[in-house]
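Help! Submission page says 'invalid entity' but I think these are all valid:
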Amino acid sequence: MTPPPTNSRKRPEPVQVVKSRRDAALRALVSGVPYIQFLGIRFDRRGDELTAELPFDEKLIGNPLLPALHGGATAAFLEVTAIIELSWTLLWEDMEAGRIDPASLDPLHLPRLPKTIDFTVDYLRSGLPRDAYARARVNRSGRRYASVHVEAWQDNRARLVAQGTGHFLMPPVGLVPGRDD
Amino acid sequence: MDRSEEAKLRVARQFIEAIPHARALGMQLDRLHDGVAEISMPYDLRLVGDPRTGVIHGGAVSALMDTCCGAAVMSHPEAPAGTATIDLRIDYMRAATPGQRITARAACYHVTRTVAFVRATAHDEDDARPVASATGAFTIERPHEGAKP
């Protein structure tokens, strides 16, 4: 027989409260970075899973004759996706544990972002003039370093346009958001 | 630089600056000769990656490096008809100083019939301390050999 619920177990919050808190945290993370806005990258969230979306824009073209996306735009898309995924996993833990209140987050009061140490891009196919998508996976996240893999595709999830691996320097732990030290 | 070199640079400059993504980032071709290219871009608030420090996003530096490496391949004496990036690795050594122009220098140091190997560095106005370095492999597209003249 199941024991009766104890008082120590809190009633789950209403789903809308949880969703709006998580969406606010993601928005704070993404909307404050001018370069992400410049490229037009958006993030779609399902639970803790993020999918980045790069809607096609003329200014992303690198070869007007083919036409094809610029390799640099593809690299930037992968790198942005990797950094946001890594920051998001850090933020998620703090948020879910109640250590950070997303209501207090704005672009100037965010936990520090990880810094890129190196980033390698494999170009697998020419990027077509259409929307692109990317998902990143944190393969290792230590106290000081993290390794993140990211894949980008367009029409077909199985036919990758590019993949990348990056190493990142983790922000120092225990910093109060917004404190500048 | 003699007259024909200058003319070549002018054509290449128009070509690079006509690439929509290069234009969006304000890239400017400063030098191009025998597999060596130099391309720079101005500091731009739209390219900032960390709003608290004003430092340019690594992705924008990647785009500059990629363009510069591609230009170096195209200017190689082997004269490929086209090129595409196979892979590019970028090492970020330090944050570029906000407000300063970023310049990339790339050298295509070896080519085979099908592949070009390129190294590049990026600097801000402090030439002695690179911001980033890169190594990459690029395809070499030959003019259609079966094609009629």
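Support: the input was valid. A stray whitespace character was the problem, and the output above is from the cleaned input. Chain B is about 25% helix and 35% strand.
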